Amino acid sequence: MLEVLNLKAHLDKERYRELISPLQRELRDVQQMIRREQIPIVVLLEGWDASGKGDSIGNLVHPLDPRGFKVFTTRGPNEEEHFRPYLWRFWVKLPRTGDFVFLDRGWYRRLLQDRLSGEIDEKSVLVAAGEIREFERQLTDDGYVLIKLWLHVSKQEQKRRLKTIESDPYERWRVARRKSEKRPGYKKCLKAAEEMLALTSTANAPWLLVEADDRLYRRVKVLEGVVSSLKAALASRGLALTGASPQEQDGTLGPLATGSRDVEVQRTNPPNLLDRVDLDKRLSRAEYNSELDRLQMRLRELELECYNQRVAAVVVYEGWDAAGKGGNIKRLTQELDPRGYEVIPVSAPDETEKAHHYLWRFWRALPKAGHIAIFDRSWYGRVLVERVEGLAAEVEWRRAYQEINEFERHITASGAVLIKFWLHLSPEEQLRRFEEREKTPHKRHKITPDDWRNRQKWNVYREAVVEMIERTSTPYGPWTIVEAEDKLWARIRTLSTLVARLEQRLGLS
Amino acid sequence: MLEVLNLKAHLDKERYRELISPLQRELRDVQQMIRREQIPIVVLLEGWDASGKGDSIGNLVHPLDPRGFKVFTTRGPNEEEHFRPYLWRFWVKLPRTGDFVFLDRGWYRRLLQDRLSGEIDEKSVLVAAGEIREFERQLTDDGYVLIKLWLHVSKQEQKRRLKTIESDPYERWRVARRKSEKRPGYKKCLKAAEEMLALTSTANAPWLLVEADDRLYRRVKVLEGVVSSLKAALASRGLALTGASPQEQDGTLGPLATGSRDVEVQRTNPPNLLDRVDLDKRLSRAEYNSELDRLQMRLRELELECYNQRVAAVVVYEGWDAAGKGGNIKRLTQELDPRGYEVIPVSAPDETEKAHHYLWRFWRALPKAGHIAIFDRSWYGRVLVERVEGLAAEVEWRRAYQEINEFERHITASGAVLIKFWLHLSPEEQLRRFEEREKTPHKRHKITPDDWRNRQKWNVYREAVVEMIERTSTPYGPWTIVEAEDKLWARIRTLSTLVARLEQRLGLS
């Protein structure tokens, strides 16, 4: 099967650039439809060491809204996993409807690494393959879209890459842990891969084979494979890629949208901390581009350094509706290794969460040492929306300031670094963005009647925000108020703050 | 503080029996109120090795409905825990409202074992104590009832017990793993305990000190301490121990309760597998008592053997409403070590669960190797209630037979043993039990309008049950149909089946 691949296939840079951008735009649009249609997506990348799985995932998630995907790397089972059925650790990681999960290796370990290392015998290989087919069929029958990619490299190319990786200080760790183990020969690997493909190529979950000797070619082929699989999945549900649902296209947003859209800010005297924010801060596109590049590259280095020093980073985004949290988080994560961070979108608690202390779900979501967690909204909901909407009793939200300060001290005392942003803009700029969203088909899903309702309560929220910042700015968890009237300025401001705080914590400043 | 304790305090067997039963009844009644009022309870037992923490927990959970509590043992942190803030592993184990969590050791490890082993320095002890006070205050402020017990033994008694344990083959494992570590001297331990008590005795979470040299005295004191703490918590909410809520006392159960209560079973020709069940099976109270004792003792041994052989056991209870699942499970778990099993009550999926494959939540709940999970209702809801109530499309529940067979094969192939019970009774007996529940104040909470509605659909359910049993009886997951017209017979039948299946799996038959 693999011998049909032309490993000489390659792309020059120019052609690559022509091809990649339209595909990324398509993937972004597809994500919106996936979300709207509530389809869960599992993308599994398999392939030998140094075949480019990690880089492919990075390239795949690049155009995506980071609140809609998770990335997992599969290594040998840990203790929890070891004591449960083989498929357990994959089941518990399944995405919820509307989300993506990307797996850097997965349940094929049994048929590849475990088989080659002799951990399971030849008879068990057939049993394992059967279980895998059943597992995959259960998922696709239930409406999961499962995309399986096999990244194939030639013997010479793999050898060359392993050498390069071993000589790169930022990459060495990827192969270092496997040095002691004997790597099985290429030919033996090839045979195992061929048999695995034969045993598990099914109609509902076919393998996409990718020639991975040329990096640019491989990236395009992976992206194209994923996009076309997703489009096919949408088409089979009678959906074509349009950008907006019929419902959204008629543009109705309920009675509130026709009410008064203006808000007059009640300023206090003396001016409070929000009055003093300088909303005239701006950046030119040229300044932005050069700064963005520099900061994103630096962040990627710092992500690795967090891992090396086993430091956890917790980043909190709060701000007005349409202040640009999503776009900001996207720039933050764009160049990061997706295996090192997680974006946690926070909305109203579900039934199980409501049956626990309000901090419970945030404790559960804390990152492991060495990883970064980015909260898109957070535990501050207690003193913002829950306060304003009366979802928490006054005694509860008043108590929360101290509870939050303690919570943040408990996590920073364990070595984590905590970075909190409030994205601030004027109600006039918010109105402009709301109206722009209404007018733009592919942004229309971002604006809801709730946004208009919240806007009417601007001054009540404002009071809550000021009190929140005043009462929860601590040495270990300081707030950064980000001037977000200009999106470009805001993005650079958060990224540079993040870089500075991480450098400080990691002893690199 | 500890010197005031009279370690000579003891109880003779007769006095013990007089005292323990009323306390157990009270605890059972308190559990119902806790559940009704949705109060979450955390009971923490601390104390040195061999002070009787495990036995105390066993004695505490004895009268409780096992669907309403979980038991955790705290050892040194595992990898997942090691890479997160210290309190993380306790936060994620908090009970949901209305439930109990019992902890055999907990967050005091820092101030005791870690301090004594020199793992944390003296300054960190104060910081840790501060964090602990904050954590406990956050819980009690939120309405959690936190009961902390310190079990105290004398030097001589501890020494004696450690010797006994080391010479008992069924107990040796408890101390075996600590043999290599040097046990710190009694005096040093005493000092650390005194300081811990001084640092963390607070108004919201006071310590209950228990003289634990005498086993019977210790049991009574622990039980009494827990019951009176719970009664005080209820009283502070304006509630006294009555047994039924005002709402339930008026006995209204909605319009359906007044409709026809009779059901005529539509028998098939030839008789189906339910028609053939012999509902005349009965046991005398004397036979029952002696069999129950024998089987419960044997189950406890088998539980330990499961742990030793690292075999997971999955027990599934399905059956008609009022067939006696709850009482049956209670007899099953009554003599088990609560650290080795978990009861998983299954009701309608919550929002997060609905956003995943229907098997997802069951995969997540699977026991680790060496542990027992008892499902009170299960994944069979897919082909029972979801089928009958139209919650799953026909194509979905039809597909589910195969999915369930595969699921069960995947878990048994990993070494788990699977035991499935269908508790069967006649509609006449069900009616008798429903009406008895209505009449008995402390049972009234068990009967709802839903039960009456389900009863109206007896024949539709019957059809679903027959198809379920026919289509999902496999060599690795056979169904046992339990004649449940007589509760005593049913309990012995499930327990003896369980014993036989476990013995077979463990190679002891």
Helix fraction bin of chain A: 40-55%
How many helices of chain A? The count is 21
Spans of at least 5 consecutive residues with low confidence of chain A: 243-258
Largest sheet of chain A: 5 strands, parallel
Structural class of chain A: alpha/beta
Query: How big a fraction of the residues of chain A is strand?
Result: 5-15%
Across the major sheet of chain A, the strand order is 2-3-1-4-5
- First-last Cα distance of chain A: 52 Å
What's the rounded overall pLDDT mean of chain A?
Answer: 89
Based on Cα principal axes, name the global outline of chain A.
Answer: globular
Radius of gyration of chain A: 24 Å
Total count of strands of chain A? 10
Quaternary structure classification:
homodimer
Largest inter-chain contact set: A-B, 54 and 53 residues
Structural account:
- Two copies of one chain form a homodimer.
- Chain A is of the alpha/beta class.
- Chain A has 21 helices and ten strands.
- Chain A has helices spanning 13-37, 53-61, 79-82, 88-91, 113-116, 122-141, 155-166, 173-176, 186-200, 215-236, 246-249, 285-309, 325-333, 351-354, 360-364, 385-388, 394-413, 427-439, 449-456, 458-472, 487-505; strands at residues 41-47, 69-73, 100-104, 145-152, 207-211, 313-319, 341-345, 372-376, 417-424, 479-483.
- A five-stranded parallel β-sheet of chain A has the order 2-3-1-4-5, with helices on both faces.
- The longest helix of chain A has 25 residues, at 13-37.
- The N and C termini of chain A lie far apart (52 Å).
- The model of chain A is unreliable at 243-258 (pLDDT under 50).
- At the A-B interface, helix 3, helix 6, helix 15 and helix 17 of A face helix 6, helix 15 and helix 17 of B.
